[in-house]
Every structure is written in structure tokens, then in C-alpha cells.
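Please, why this fold?
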Amino acid sequence: MAHASEPHPTIDPREAAHFGRLAADWWDPKGSSAMLHRLNPVRLGYIRGRIDRHWGGDECDRRPLEGKKAADVGCGAGLLAEPLARLGAEVTGIDAAPENIAAARLHAEGQGLEIDYRAGGVELLTGRYDLVTSLEVIEHVTDTREFVAGLADALTPDGLLILSTPNRTATSRLLMIMLAEGLGRIPRGTHDWQKFLTPDELCALLRDAGLKVVDVAGLGYNPLRGFAVSENTSLDYFITATRA
């Protein structure tokens, strides 16, 4: 389902400002984005597995995205965009906070990576992409239906869309809001629990956008072992979709 020719803005200015204030130490593994640094290897492992499964790749191939275009929507300062570039993709990174884009460009330049970073919303996705990712982002937008439609429209016919987001459960309220934000492990005000989507709700949005859900996996956290992909979706989860 294509979105309207005059798309509604999906950016919440307050959310953009909040994350923009975190830009300066986004790449500091002990800074305000420390939790993302701990989470990133697990996210990359899941994404790599779905890439290999979708395109029948070799798990030992160091550049499985060679010749493919990827877009990371809500890219922050590039924690995911840079690994996607190293996997061989031609990467576009989009974020609502100009401060994040400035930090992303500076860091990528220091790494010798060419990434097309753009400050704005999903409306900036021009052309089609083989892989579209948007991790821990949809819970921050103003119009989830418009946002998902924009992601779907950007996929090539054989494209792969990967999302992750917190589930709206008592578990996520306790661990992410009361504990993680309450204790300062995540910056206060990062999340609004009421805006979290359940897997059923997000799957329905994807189907309405003309996509087929091919995988749902939980993202769990253990104080001793850290983050891991699991069958339990009560805290956070991944969803992978393709064109129907």
C-alpha cells in the first residue's frame, strides 16, 4: 500500500531534540549510549543471520551485502550504518536529529567509510533499497502507519526489512522505564511506554503496508549474560518482513 503523495511528517521534534542532545558521546561505549553498544553485537548477529537466510549467502562471507543498497532509518551516529558498510553495502543513514548526522559523518570519515547521511525522516528515503533497517525507532515516531508505509515503499521487490522495538508489557515497563531509566542506565525520558507496540500490532501495520512477516524473535536481557536473541518477546523483539 503506497503512502499518500503528501506524506505526514513522522518526526516528533521533542524526540529529535532528546536524541540530538546525546550525539556528542554516542560513540563512547561508557557514555549515554552504553546500552546500545552492548546491544549492537546481538543486533548485528540477528541481521547477519536474516541476510544469509534471505539471499542464501555464506556465513563466512565477509561482505555479504556487496553490490546491495541498504538504508538505516533512525541511524543515530552510525552504530549500525558503519557495520552495514563494512559488510559491503552502499549505505544511506537517516536520522531526525541533525546533531546525530553531524556526529555520524565525522566518525565515518575517521573510519574511511563513505556513507550517505541525511538529516530528516523516512520521507528522505529516495529510490529503492535491498535492505532497510530501523531499530528501536518506531516507538519514537508520530505516525507509525505512515512510518511503516514509508519503509515498505523503499524496498526493492526482493528487499528485506528488519525492525526492532520494545514490547508494551509489564516486563518492559519494569525493566526499561522503572529500572533502566530510573537508575540512569538509559537517559531519562528516552521512552514513552504507551507508544510501545506489541508484535501483533506491528505485524498488522506491516501487512497493511503490503509486506509479509517472515520472522519474529525476542530480544532478551540477562544481568549476567547480557542481551541475547530468544523466543521471549516480552521485553523487546525483532521483526523481519519482505514484500508479500
Observations:
- The CA atoms of residues 93 and 117 lie 5 Å apart.
- Confidence is low (pLDDT under 50) at residues 1-7.
